[in-house]
Design brief:
This protein is an alpha/beta fold. It has 2 domains: 12-164, SPOUT methyltransferase, trefoil knot domain (Alpha/beta knot); 186-227, Trp Operon Repressor, Chain A. The protein contains 8 helices and 9 strands. The protein binds 6-chloroguanine.
Length: 234
């Protein structure tokens, strides 16, 4: 439709190594991320880990030595996959392993990742990776929070989303970069917001918001800010 591509030097590049490339389809084609991809601001390449299976049955996982529940992703498919991914593009990129035991991802990490220009995201499944992946490749390990997910795909989408939003031009006209840095520091708009209709099921929009008095509106919004939360501890 009326999409005007921004001129850019090189797109930000994401490479995702996953057993489930189709999980990313709608995420990468719709809305803000879809537009950033179509406009050439970011490039996302999906790599199916099964390509580097250890046998003709497509095996990429096995049981942990010493016993224990579930299966682990084997080291050879992951190491060979990362080597092939690196060979595909000049910049070796920054290697990130998505795992619940990693360091918590936050907005400042998103800003740091933006400076890397290329991220290689390793999505775990099952009980995780053979530890030799960490020994051999030395990835940065990242978690998105203290809860258990079925794999690293949703966390990879979280990282792609938050980093892409920081790429200049990715937000287009509907959100100004000024607003965004404001959100960054204040975390979220902390006052209630309303749109049409003016009245719904007996609930009216506060009269002050319809007054046109922007100084007054700013004071009203300020008065409704909640005291900031105490700092998060890891
Ligand atoms: Cl990165 N992976 C999995 N499997 N679960 C998670 C996570 C990652 N971050 C939070 N929970």
């Amino acid at each position: 439709m009326n999409e005007v591509p921004e001129p850019v030097d090189a797109p930000f590049r994401f490479d995702v190594l996953t057993l489930f490339p189709p999980l990313f389809e709608g995420f990468l084609t719709e809305s803000i991320i879809g537009r950033a991809v179509r406009n050439g601001l970011v490039e996302v390449k999906l790599w199916d880990l099964r390509q580097w299976a250890v046998n003709r049955f497509g095996q990429v996982d096995d049981r942990p030595f010493g016993g224990g529940p579930g299966m682990l992703l084997m080291a050879p498919p992951v190491v060979e996959g990362v080597n092939a991914i690196r060979d595909d593009f000049a910049d070796p990129g920054h290697l990130v392993m998505l795992t619940p035991s990693g360091r918590r991802f936050d907005q400042s990490k998103a800003r740091e990742f933006l400076t890397r220009k290329r991220l290689i995201l390793l999505c775990g499944r099952y009980e995780g990776f053979d530890h030799r992946v960490n020994e051999i490749l030395g990835p940065e390990t990242v978690s998105i929070g203290d809860y258990v997910l079925s794999g690293g795909e949703v966390p990879a989408m979280v990282i792609i989303d938050s980093v892409t939003r920081l790429v200049p031009g990715a937000l287009g006209d509907e959100t100004s970069p000024l607003d965004e840095s404001f959100h960054d520091d204040r975390r979220l708009v902390e006052y209630p917001q309303y749109t049409r209709p003016r009245e719904y099921l007996g609930h009216s929009v506060p009269e002050i918001l319809l007054s046109g008095d922007h100084a007054k509106i700013a004071r009203w919004r300020e008065s409704l800010r909640r005291p900031s939360e105490p700092p998060q501890t890891q």
